[in-house]
Amino acid sequence: MFAAYAARIDRDQPLNGLELGERPEPEVRPGWTTVTVKATSLNHHDLWSLQGVGLSEQALPMILGCDAAGIDEDGNEVVLHSVIGQTGHGVGPDEPRSILTERYQGTFAERVAVPAWNVLPKPKELSFEEAACLPTAWLTAYRMLFTNANVRPGQSVLVQGAGGGVATAAIALGAAAGLRVYATSRDAAKRERAVELGAVAAFETGARLPQRVDAVIETVGAATWSHSVKSLKPGGTLVISGATSGPNPPATELNRIFFLELKVVGSTMGTKDELADLLDFCAATGVRPVIDSVLPLDRAREGFEKMAGGGLFGKVVLTV
What we know:
Layout: E1 2-6, E2 18-22, E3 32-41, H1 44-50, E4 62-63, E5 69-71, E6 77-80, E7 83-84, E8 98-99, E9 111-115, E10 119-121, H2 128-131, H3 134-148, E11 156-159, H4 165-176, E12 180-184, H5 188-197, E13 201-203, E14 213-218, H6 225-230, E15 232-240, H7 254-259, E16 263-266, H8 272-285, E17 291-296, H9 300-309, E18 315-319
């Protein structure tokens, strides 16, 4: 079957390790099932995998891709939850959780095998392309907002780095849930798009906000960390799920964190139940993932190049 896969690890030039071509059909273990992929989407996780983050040389070649929507063995339209081993289904109770492509072949292929437990019904209201955007970036944003920040309608949120998959998801979900959403970006066009998406205002990175906020959604890391901490109300919550600009900010702002009793919460992906809730939320409200571009799988390299260049607003979807 045709697939896009990591053939080599290259920490400096990650796209040098990306290959497109034929790979073996997926291995179906007891308790697993095969899904025919109709659409899948790119995440920074895929780029990091090519740099060896979470993926060892010993695991190569590895088909990339965490997200997918497609058709199951019974002909049903489905969405995949890409966290394997969260409950032990299909892998046994002692295996730690992992994301597809860290241990198991991924979704940038014509077919993928996953534990049967990881398959959810796709709402009829969502296209395959839309549904394929949800299991990683949008699920991450959903958990950051509603589980780990625990914000409720009427409260305020700052989303750093408008344009990335998680950030755009947080803006759209937050606005649909009745939050006052502020966003930042260095790019004027992305700030404008953030407002179109539902943010009440968007500012230059590091700019003073009209008010301090109840929560900050942080995926940028070192470049925005100090601004994130300074933007919070006393008792506010900073939720972090990534550090695309680096993990070590020049100032940690510890005095402000303890004096204002701020909470700093790490967040990774989400649960199957949260994904089911997210799918229902999108179906019921009309909120749809922001799609930057749709490409056939054999043009996956173009999508990787666009993501690596930082020019995205929303998700790159690959159709199969």
